[in-house]
Amino acid sequence: MTVVPDSSLTDHACLIVHGADRPGIVAAVSALITRNQGNIVAFDQYSDDPVGGAYFQRVVFHRAGLSAALGAIEADLERTIGGEFGLEWTITDQASPKRMAILASKQDHCLLDLLWRHRRGDLPVSISMVISNHPNAADDVHSFGVPFFHVPSVPGPDKSESEAKIVELLRGNVDFIVLARYMQILSPSFLEQVGVPVINIHHSFLPAFIGAEPYKKAKERGVKLIGATSHYVTSELDEGPIIEQDTVRVAHGDTASELARRGADVERQVLSRAVLWHAQDRVIRHGNHTIVF
Amino acid sequence: MTVVPDSSLTDHACLIVHGADRPGIVAAVSALITRNQGNIVAFDQYSDDPVGGAYFQRVVFHRAGLSAALGAIEADLERTIGGEFGLEWTITDQASPKRMAILASKQDHCLLDLLWRHRRGDLPVSISMVISNHPNAADDVHSFGVPFFHVPSVPGPDKSESEAKIVELLRGNVDFIVLARYMQILSPSFLEQVGVPVINIHHSFLPAFIGAEPYKKAKERGVKLIGATSHYVTSELDEGPIIEQDTVRVAHGDTASELARRGADVERQVLSRAVLWHAQDRVIRHGNHTIVF
Amino acid sequence: MTVVPDSSLTDHACLIVHGADRPGIVAAVSALITRNQGNIVAFDQYSDDPVGGAYFQRVVFHRAGLSAALGAIEADLERTIGGEFGLEWTITDQASPKRMAILASKQDHCLLDLLWRHRRGDLPVSISMVISNHPNAADDVHSFGVPFFHVPSVPGPDKSESEAKIVELLRGNVDFIVLARYMQILSPSFLEQVGVPVINIHHSFLPAFIGAEPYKKAKERGVKLIGATSHYVTSELDEGPIIEQDTVRVAHGDTASELARRGADVERQVLSRAVLWHAQDRVIRHGNHTIVF
Amino acid sequence: MTVVPDSSLTDHACLIVHGADRPGIVAAVSALITRNQGNIVAFDQYSDDPVGGAYFQRVVFHRAGLSAALGAIEADLERTIGGEFGLEWTITDQASPKRMAILASKQDHCLLDLLWRHRRGDLPVSISMVISNHPNAADDVHSFGVPFFHVPSVPGPDKSESEAKIVELLRGNVDFIVLARYMQILSPSFLEQVGVPVINIHHSFLPAFIGAEPYKKAKERGVKLIGATSHYVTSELDEGPIIEQDTVRVAHGDTASELARRGADVERQVLSRAVLWHAQDRVIRHGNHTIVF
């Protein structure tokens, strides 16, 4: 999976198409791109069942003067792909990166890893802000030139107050949210209010060890591998569509804190891949699954 | 983890010691080996808690004319390690391989893999017999010069009849049993009657997807890795001490049958490692955990 | 990468297109398939340079009554894709599996693994014959219902005599050849005479440890991972286009023979994946590289 | 491999013993520890050849009031292990961490990763200083409270001037040096003058792609995996004893810069493991090999 360097994203559009499979979709989409003077750079498609299944397609194409042409292309998509084929479609200008917010807590390894990758130019996003329920990372975040807001988590089940503050900060400012070991369960109403995708990193190989203290549970069960899972957040805890997972070997002598130390490496790898792929429009949600192109 | 070639196992003993940790155990055990003219070849020890924890030790030592000296060594162990230190110990002559029986079903990939590895000299065991509830593998098993018995599984929950036949074949003939995708749940009474360790391969990364059809469940959950787990069988389904696990990457396009095809490779790798380590006395059970030296 | 079960290959064609990249290829190919009543099942494309680069495409499409329509489709391809676009193309009926011959030597792990995978239905090929310079595997090969020929390797550099016998057996009977640890260097004239792709498995992570005794060299260098590489054979030893590679962890205590034991697992995995992908027309050679779709 | 948290290192000693193998070493060492009121916490030993081979042992033991007792223990070691057995030995107080210096260049991923891990308490070392031939990382390094020195590399082969400045900074202040993608070849005289172990990270799976631009070479060769290797620096480029290696999968579509992006993750993982193990006295050099306990 190649990350296209930012500079080369000018005049590149990413078109996502999905819906009921039927013959001729590839031909129709590629003909549309051609007649709109586009040149296909990357093309992926998948049908979960050749007969009466769902169809998914991701196309990246180059079109000189894209921004000026985008309106006409969208009208064409509406008429043909939306109209004749009855498919859903979204098109994005790759030159305008998605705006990402990071929610963090005391553990800073995933947070700092994302900030560092972004500074290196490895994450094609803009980072709007970091919100943490601990103040400890403020200086680090500022050193990356990113706004930092400290919103303490009120103890007890009712998170409405802190969630309200967070929503206020996020609303209108972000295209997606990353929970970098945020360790707070977000309410369905929060997810509804922010209205953008929320990506979480869970420190186990889901569906094993759902919920709190997975490394402790892993130690108790005596597993020989530990893992991490990045998924879209839904109203059901740790049950959302999985974007990426990975595992690492452990041994009988490793303590629970050693599992946490090793797991931290897997967490930041898995989360950064999930964020990269989401930022590149490589991930399509379908029910409780993801198609990752 | 090195597999010592059979030839070099002559006059090699493997001593396992475990019990309550206390200072001086290493010194006592190594002094005992030295005064019995043994030379330590491999030495592993582990304490799960330096203060008041459990102690585990595996020592392989060479002693010219081992079989003649074994009696005296055992008496010494009884007196010092058992007596003074109050530890449990077992000593085995590495030159006499463990007798293994394989229980199989229609799926033959794990069964054939074990037979091939044994023929190549990669598994230091003797294979007493293969028992299957399907006749299909008979010719293959015979081509390896191994006795094959077909014991059909009676439909329904009551397995006592087929289990009784299997116990009759196994009793006194085996030191451990391997379930090579046997796909039948063994009753507690069966485990009691055979009275030897039983190693199973489960086709998921436990504790994820316990029970039947793990690949189907994995496909439904949309995981990005599948795995296999080899564990000792206990009366609780898929809850026994884990010996070895591994995972392999899958993608959204992989069907459930493709997961099964890929998983088969992981299953035979994981099972063969678990069997090898058990055969080499590398695995010590402790509660629901294993120490693998 | 999904292996389509044989049964479902009826009326499926695989079209490979490659040549100089230019706008409109995807549209032209998909339009051609649509106007020939084909429905695209899988579609992969790659351009090694958006500007003036080489273009590669693999399309699998379903077309009822394919065999009857194949002539017309080929004529259309010749006219448009070959003519207008000046691209090279090949189309194959997926229902007619490629004919594979295996050349083997004393080490049988890769040979038996391929035979076993084929019997399970995991390799969509037909196995024409096994040729070995050792007689040891004859019974095993026959047990799979595959013809076995013993062609001893004449000592010394001049292999022309044994190569002539092998060419005689292979000519006209195979679509590709697999060297399953054949351990003999084939002459350029042999490669020319057989005139089909030859896939080799080398027991190292190329380009490390080219040539003989890679495990011995790996032990001497003290590497912490060993590997295996499957590649197309060219006239230069171990320099052909790489299809697949993998590695496995080893430790300081592993002897050279232990490295060989572990490596054998990696070898058969890597070779079987390379053979599968070649059999599915997923591998396109381009200079000394491969594109694997 | 468990990293013991700093707090728990008080009164813990690590004893390394190596030399010609002979019977009774384990007994002698463990008896010595027992008679000096030590309790063994971890014990590893290895002999590269049971007959006339070299012997290696690492023991961690707890001894109340270690610092006061160290003199007597050393005298005992000198008399018995050094004298009677003629073995080399070193004993270190685990509570006093090794002093590490980092040499870096423009690429900061390995440098920052080590600083982060140290701040998290995952590396039991003290960081004396960072020396870089680029000024860019100064602020980042200072934010970790670590001294930073900018020593530009003089163009051309003669590095004596800049090396002299570096030696001046390092002499007497460090126990080992880490080259975190330093990208300069150090002269034999430099290695001699600093007189401490130097650990390098090379961005390929050695011995493949020795020297400059390994990712470019990997792309040219068309490998399917890239890797990283951490090794002790010797006077021969990229030929020193390997401490740790790892690999990651790449695909035909990955550009050389994408390989570098992915490789960066492997580099920092591999280097951090090598540094951790060296800091814990787990790595013993033997000729051009390492034993990693």
Automatic annotation (TrEMBL), chains A, B, C, D:
SUPFAM superfamilies hit by this protein: ACT-like, Formyltransferase
Domain ACT: 14-92
InterPro entries from the UniProt entry: ACT-like_dom_sf (IPR045865), ACT_dom (IPR002912), Formyl-FH4-Hydrolase_C (IPR041729), Formyl_transf_N (IPR002376), Formyl_transf_N_sf (IPR036477), PurU (IPR004810), PurU_ACT (IPR044074)
Listed GO MF terms: formyltetrahydrofolate deformylase activity
Active-site residues per Swiss-Prot or TrEMBL entry: D238
Keywords: Hydrolase, One-carbon metabolism, Purine biosynthesis
Catalyses which reaction(s): (6R)-10-formyltetrahydrofolate + H2O = (6S)-5,6,7,8-tetrahydrofolate + formate + H(+)
UniProt pathway: Purine metabolism; IMP biosynthesis via de novo pathway; formate from 10-formyl-5,6,7,8-tetrahydrofolate: step 1/1
Protein EC: 3.5.1.10
Family that this chain belongs to: Belongs to the PurU family.
Function field: Catalyzes the hydrolysis of 10-formyltetrahydrofolate (formyl-FH4) to formate and tetrahydrofolate (FH4).
NCBIfam families (alphabetical): PRK06027.1, PurU
Entry-linked PANTHER family: FORMYLTETRAHYDROFOLATE DEFORMYLASE (PTHR42706), FORMYLTETRAHYDROFOLATE DEFORMYLASE 2, MITOCHONDRIAL (PTHR42706:SF1)
Protein name (database record): Formyltetrahydrofolate deformylase
Organism this protein belongs to: Microbacterium marmarense
Gene name tied to this protein: purU
